[in-house]
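Page 37, top half.
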Amino acid sequence: MPKIDFYILPVTDEAPRLRFACRLIEKLYQQRHRIYIHTQNQTQAHQLDELLWTYQEESFLPHNLYGEGPESAPPIQIGFDTIPENQHDILMNLASSAPEFYIQFSRILEVISSSPDVQAAGRENYRFYRAKRCEITTHKLQSVEA
């Protein structure tokens, strides 16, 4: 059963939420994890793809959109409408619902902003994981770096 971590952010805008996601992805990458990022749609996937290239000048996060790029996939994959194969480490869910394939991962990260829509979706996902008897940890952040 996967371990679930909810990161509750004190921001309502999507941009700080995605920047926080990038910092978390960078930290996990430095720990040698493989990460699949499940986004809401193609627009958000492309937005995150671009942000991972540019959010910090001094960092390099090897990534691509799922199914694109080299045959030996980089450790960070971004997708929105597909079930990832051969991914079993970390799932970062930025979509509004928990994906059906969540069970194939050992750890799941949910990044929740203070936006009413994102909060409502986060509450639904929390109830979903709790009903599946997953171990859930909530991290309520007091601030988010700019």
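Page 37, bottom half:
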Amino acid sequence: MSAFISIPMFPLSIFSLPGEMVPLHIFEPRYRQLVEDAEARDITFGIYYNNTSNTQKLGSLVKLESVIKHYKTGESDIIVRCVDLFSMNKLYKNHKDKLYPGGDVTLWKVDGFKPMGASLKDYFEQYHFWLKITHSDKVVSLYDVANELSLGFDERLKFVNLSIEKQESFLINQIKYQIQLMREAENARDIFHLN
């Protein structure tokens, strides 16, 4: 990890992982200003995971992907994509001369494209089979798998703090659990008949 950098900040109760696309509705004047700056200057900004379980003060570095809609009221619907993670050192009420907050952070420089190992790949293919999804030959990263499993925010915090080997085991256990749930749902359909 490198030295602190100062970035615009958007504290929210979400924690996204690299590669994830997140829709947001922007209505507060300070965050409308942040979106305007992100649109005009193509800047990244942080979404600090504002939750008591986030004792390590982690967040997601995001980039504006698109503005879906601008409202007459000044509000907007946008989509951001997570490009990295960060550790927060200090949160400021205002970023430089702006209305929105800022923060001093250390970027993790996550390799969001690191492919998964063979064992995880096998389980992920089984998971797709149960979902009736045709598997593509595209190389899928650990973060792609984690995003597809729709982990809860606390599970995501746990996941990012594990070593790569343990991250794979964690995801395999998540997949096994999901497959077990699908098996039980399948068995329940065989037992109960709708009238």
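Margin note: The mean pLDDT is 91.
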